[in-house]
Each structure stands twice: as structure tokens, then as C-alpha cells.
Amino acid sequence: MEKIPYVSIVPKEFDLIEKMLDEYLDTPCKIAILDDIDFDGVSASIMVKYHLSHTHPNALVRIFNNYKHGVDEEWLEKLSTFDLLIIVDSSTNEMVDLKFPIPTLILDHHELQYTEDKYYKNNVLFCNSKLTPQLENISAGMLCYLVFSEYAKKKKKALYGDRSLFDLAVSSLYSDIVPVD
Predict the structure, then answer these.
(1) What is the residue-wise DSSP string for 17-35?
(2) C-alpha–C-alpha distance, residues 107 and 139, integer Å
(3) What is the arrangement of strands in the sheet containing 124-128, beginning at the earlier edge strand?
(4) In sequence order, which residues have a C-beta less than 8 Å from that of residue 68 and are 6 or more positions away?
(5) Are the CB atoms for 88 and 45 separated by under 8 Å?
(6) DSSP character for 3?
(7) Within 13 Å of residue 35, how many CA atoms lie on the same side as its CB?
(8) Which residue has better confidence, 136 or 6?
(9) Phi/psi at 36 (nearest 5 deg)?
(10) What is the per-residue pLDDT across 5-52, written as a single tens digit (0 to 9) for each?
(11) How far is CA 11 from the centre of its chain?
(12) What number of H helices and E strands is found in the chain?
């Protein structure tokens, strides 16, 4: 596994994300990942699952591809039997009017349509790269790479700096952020 130089740039919510994920360390639990069904969303979900399979070896981690952008009540009901829900590359604005039945982590990069206070609710940890100035123009794939690489490093798992994950994260930047005209 080829290593790349390690850079630690994480969103302001990182400590809260670490605390949330630590609750599920070393316990048999079920973690659902819900993604947006584009390259960025799928890349982000693959990175999250890959990291969780190493940092949380006792967890059952399943990816669910959402064929529309954003979570809704139907998805929340389907996934309510899981212990933790991680939503990547969507749901920044859809989440405002929903009640989440299980602890939920949202990692997204889409523009915020509401004032920041609307995004903080019980049971939900919301992390949007637009709220961290150094990260405001990255993809969800790159956000997940940075968050979970830092998490793996702190847990002393040998995943941070993995070249293939970095390449996937960079590819997600070009598929979702960089203008092509």
C-alpha cells in the first residue's frame, strides 16, 4: 500500500464526530451508510465503509444507495433498526424538517439553504464542509477522506495516508466540484 504525506485538515465538528464514532468501538453494532448515487456519493460511502471495517471490526456496516438526492421519512423508517446512520453527500437541506429515530451523522458539502442553527438537532451530528473555511470547496468524498483518515490515525489504525483512498477522494473532487467548461 503506497503512502502519501499525511495532512491533517478536519472540519470544526471533528471532535464531536470522533466522540460519536467512539461510542460504537469494540461493540457489535449495525451501521448504515446512505449515499447519493453519483460518483462523489458512492466514493464517500466506500471510504467510510472501508475505514469503519478497520476501526470498528465488530460492526456490521451496510451501504444503501439512495436513488434520489437526500434522506426522507421512508428511508429513516427503513434504517431505524440500525444503531447508527451515516449519510454522505446529501441531506444538508432535507434534514431540517425530519425527525431522526437513531443517532445520525451527516457529512455533506452542498450549499446551506437555512441559517446554521436550523441544522443542529437531537440525535443528529451535522458536518458540512461549507462551515469550515479551509474546506468550503471540497467534495463529500474528500470530506470523508479527511475525517476518517484523521479518525484512523487517532485510533492508531494504519489507514491514514493510503494512496488508493486519496486517489478516490481526489477523483471525487473532479467529478463533483471542478467546473468543466
Answers:
(1) HHHHHHTTTTS-EEEEEEE
(2) 10
(3) 59-66, 29-36, 84-88, 104-108, 124-128
(4) none
(5) yes
(6) B
(7) 21
(8) 136
(9) -85, 140
(10) 555 678 888 999 999 999 988 789 999 999 988 899 999 999 899 889
(11) 12
(12) 5, 5
Query: Using an 8 Å Cβ cutoff, are 151 and 18 in contact?
Result: yes
In the numeric block, the cell 474528500 is attached to 142
Is 161 exposed, middle or buried (CB count within 10 Å of its CB: 0-12, 13-18, 19+)?
Answer: middle
Q: What share of the chain is helix, strand, coil (3-state, %, to 5)?
A: 40, 20, 40
SS3 60: strand
Which residue type does 179 have? P
Instruction: Give the mean pLDDT of 40-69.
Output: 87
Closest CA to 83 of 95, 101, 107: 101
Place of cell 467548461: 181
The b-or-e profile of 37-48 (16+ CB within 10 A means b, else e) is: ebbbbbbbbbbb
Residue type, 82: F
CB 176 within 8 A of CB 141: yes
What pLDDT sits at residue 173? 84
pLDDT confidence bin for 78, thresholds 50/70/90: very high
How high is the pLDDT of residue 70? 82
Amino acid at 143: L
> What's the CA gap between 147 and 156, in Å, rounded?
14
